Amino acid sequence: METLFWISTFTILYSFAGYGILITLLNKWKKKKNTNTPFSEEDWPEVTLLIAAYNEAEIIRQKIANCEKIDYPKDRLKVLFVTDGSTDQTNDIIKQYDSVSFSFSPERKGKIAAVNRIMRYITSPITVFSDANVMMNPGGIKALVQPFESNLMGAVSGEKIVLSETEDNASASGEGFYWKYESFLKKQDAEWNTLVGSAGELFAIRTRLFVPTEENTLIEDFVMTMRIAADGYKVGYEPSAMATETASANIAEETKRKVRISAGGIQAVIKLVKLLNVFKYGKLTFQYVSHRALRWTLMPLALIGAFASTLWLADTHWFYNLAFRAQSIFYLLAFFGYVIRDQKTSYKLLHIPYYFTYMHICVVKGWIKYFRGNQKVTWDKSERVVLATNRAA
């Protein structure tokens, strides 16, 4: 039981704190290289902004208006919506705008199938992927494209921004805190070697590096960019390229998203099993295992192992007794967070123990759903928070 405790505790602490400290120290010891020369106005390459949309009539006008504000040479930017399977007014609305184009197939096979279908027709050297429900800052495309001045750059990820209010529920509070920490880790990863995956809401690749991804892939953005990294290219991170969206409206809506991502995570570990070969992939394997694979595989087991072992050992030594009490208090706070999960509060830290526990419950649910074959590749949209500013408008 002592062995179980120490292995479990190390896994938990390393995954959520130790790796962040270690990668930060590695960055401080790394010699910084000179940055690349910025593109001049006449040298910006042609770009296709590809947006996969399914039944997005409610937000498509806002998305198009957002695209029209992009600060990029208009003669070198093509905005293309792929709307496979849409049955609402999405296509009719897009037809009203000369600034964008769309491609449509009546069969709905999922996002990656739609992307695979259209990518063969894209000729621009850079393709930027964005979701229909996120809004970009005007300088986002330039920020994503600039790093491609280096021939070693294969993909670049932007930053996901979760909008929040003074008072939020557990879904919004937890997701906001999670993404702030993720942003820190992504910055450290990219500076030291390469980003591990990408933000599917906004990322770019060299078009020639695109290889069709299996149509059953659940988190295609992660798998796509990890394969580019495995081929020896760098995946960059540009926090100044921002994709903003609101959090899920409540925990029930967030659960749909989290379980899908968790199912996709265990699927990705299986699809990318070759990346566990540290002798071949070196730094990339270290980052991939530390930042992603541990969370998608061992973390829920480690949490159970740590609690069960201290419950068993609590009477044998004061240290184990203290560890048991600390975990018990944490899970009591998590239960309190569960009770108020959909209530808004300005004391957002109250939601953190619950959201942490909840995330790992979703991981287990994702495992079950994936291995039972119940996770569909097609996406059921989660209802999002409507901010007070939007309600007022």
From TrEMBL:
Keywords: Glycosyltransferase, Membrane, Transferase, Transmembrane, Transmembrane helix
Domain of life of the source: Bacteria
Pfam families: Glyco_trans_2_3 (PF13632), Glycos_transf_2 (PF00535)
Residues in Glycosyltransferase 2-like domain copies: 49-192, 212-313
MF term (GO), any: glycosyltransferase activity
Membrane spanning stretches: 6-26, 293-312, 318-340
UniProt record similarity statement: Belongs to the glycosyltransferase 2 family.
Protein name: Glycosyl transferase
